Amino acid sequence: MPLIRMLKAVLKKVRLVIPVFRLDGFVGVDSPPTVRPTSREQALSFIKWIKHSARITASRVCVYFALLAGAFAPALLLAGDGSSDAVRPSNILIITADNLGYGDLQCYNSKSKIRTPNLDRFATQGARLTGFYTASPTCTVSRACLLTGRIPQRHGLTNQLGGVAGNYGVGLSHDEILIPQILKTAPTPYTTGCFGKWNIGFAQGSRPTERGFDEFIGHASGNLDYYFHNYRQKHDLYHGTDELHREGEYSTDIFADAAIDFMRRKSKTADPWFCYLPFNSPHFPTAGNKTRGEANVWQAPGWAFEACGYPPDESNPDKRYEAVVYSLDVAIGRVLSTLDQTGTADNTFVFFMSDNGAFRLNRKGLDVGSNEPLRHGGVTCWEGGLRVAAMARWPTRIKPGSVITQPFWSPDLLPACTKIADAALPTDVKFDGKDPLPILLNNAPSSHKSFYFEYRSHAALRMSDWKIVRDKQNRAWQLFNIADDPVEARDLATSHQNKAAELADDFARWQKSFQH
Ligand SMILES: [Ca+2]
Questions:
Q1: Cα 190 to middle of ligand 1, angstroms
Q2: Within 13 Å and on the Cβ side, how many CA atoms surround 227?
Q3: Gap from CA of 99 to ligand 1 centroid (Å)
Q4: Is the distance from CB of 384 to CB of 421 less than 8 angstroms?
């Protein structure tokens, strides 16, 4: 919108900020123009300029100025100094946890022993989602779907990036358009930051600061040592495209601190910001990332163990995992407190989700996360892999303490961000996301006819209350009524053959839409 940009440039030149300077003498305007020059001289100069350039009488100046202020009120407010948050475009904060289980949080599973007071509070301040799906049950692919608004079969990144070569390769196609790139095209372009796990390619041209983010502190790979930041034998922590050495600092806190610093700085400016905060926690530890002979155990700060009532050398993996999730929760609490401290909480859309369900592969000491009561977990298309803990907060718009059961999914975040920013979706891209704001703000019914999932040999389709699932390509579909049977215990494929066929047909319809 060139007109708004032009006005902002003029305002910047004459150093006008809001709110409220009562231009005495400009009688006849019930609600005075909301401008405040930084000095009386500038005010007089500005008034003279208006009078001179318009060659009109003082009374006409009133009318002229009122019209000007009215016509450009949004731009005047957008040019504010942060105290005008009620009307400037909302900031956007997307936080993802890594492999956090649906049943790890007490607000989803009362049997969980893990304390997450900050996420619990977040749920009471906004909406807790019980029908939210990630579009893929694995790290790399889940992130690509979130950032592109498209399913894997459309954006092409259908598998986990493997090894150093995979994680430092091209990864996601450079033709794909990411959320931050769209936000840069908004009438008021967003400043953008990414802090945490990237995991969709780190070759030249693939890195966050080359894909729409102004700032990045994080790692390329799918997992890293929480303290020494190694992926396999490679150091894997970056500031922009440069290596960053912060060995000895806990990765969760590095990423939270970076996001906090970004939000503090950007909240002082006139432009809205977008912060993407993909924590690596609580991803399971990996023996291949150890370089100093350490045991491959869950890593958490000493204070987190202490807060949970355990010694730092606690040997029980369940208890160690508890400290990992607790420290993540504390970090999220610090991030959310920053919104309060900077006065931006009321004008920031916050979305939290786990990138996929906890892994339930029976690996001793590693698969201790819980997806209770859902079936199975990460890398499968059972509910435990796909339906994830998620929450959304947007004060005065999303009802506090609400629970939203309507199904929607991670590709919907791209159209949500686009809408919030008043940006336009590219018209030549087939998106799988649909604007979820009617669901979040008004508890409207989901506008999705169905949801398509496919990862390796696993596949599923959810349509209304029904879902078909198979874990081998040549196996027959199983059919479940998710509303009656959320744990997928009763296969109804035989007793409801027509329903199973209807969903299978829809699965085929999806496939036709991306197979050429
Ligand atoms: Ca993950």
A1: 27
A2: 13
A3: 4
A4: no
For residue 8, the one-letter residue type is K
C-alpha dist (Å) from residue 151 to 16, 134, 144, 436: 46, 10, 8, 16
Domain for residue 86, yes or no? no
CA of 226 to the centre of ligand 1 (A): 15
Q: Which of 21, 51, 78 is the last residue of a domain?
A: 78
Write out the two tokens for 501: 């066929």
Helix (H) or strand (E) holding 466: strand 466-470
- Cα 159 to ligand 1 centre (Å): 12
Measured in Å, residue 279 CA sits from the centre of ligand 1 at 10
Q: Ligand 1 centroid vs 361 CA: distance in angstroms?
A: 14
pLDDT in tens, 262-278: 999 999 999 999 999 99
User: Is the same domain home to 234 and 355?
Assistant: yes
Looking at the fold, whether 165 and 46 belong to one and the same domain comes out as no
Residue 402 in domain: yes
Q: Are 355 and 498 in a shared domain? A: no
* Total domain count, the chain: 3
Q: What is the pTM of this model?
A: 0.84
pLDDT tens track for 23-56: 322 222 223 333 333 444 444 444 444 444 433 3
Quick one: pLDDT at residue 178? Answer: 98
Average pLDDT over residues 311-335: 98
Q: Is residue 38 part of a domain?
A: yes
CA distance 471 to 381: 7
Note the pLDDT tens digit of each residue in 194-227. Answer: 999 999 999 999 999 999 999 999 999 999 999 9
For residues 343 and 421, membership in a common domain is answered with yes
Q: Please tell me the distance between residue 137's alpha carbon and the centre of ligand 1 in angstroms.
A: 7
Structural domain boundaries, residue 250: 94-448
Based on the fold, state whether residues 14 and 145 are members of the same structural domain.
Answer: no
Give yes or no: residues 276 and 343 share one domain.
Answer: yes
Ligand 1 centroid to Cα of residue 97, in Å, is 8
- Which residues are placed with Cβ below 5 angstroms of ligand 1, an ion? 98-99, 139, 355-356
Q: What is the CATH number of the domain that holds 357?
A: 3.40.720.10
Residue located via tokens 């598998």: 159
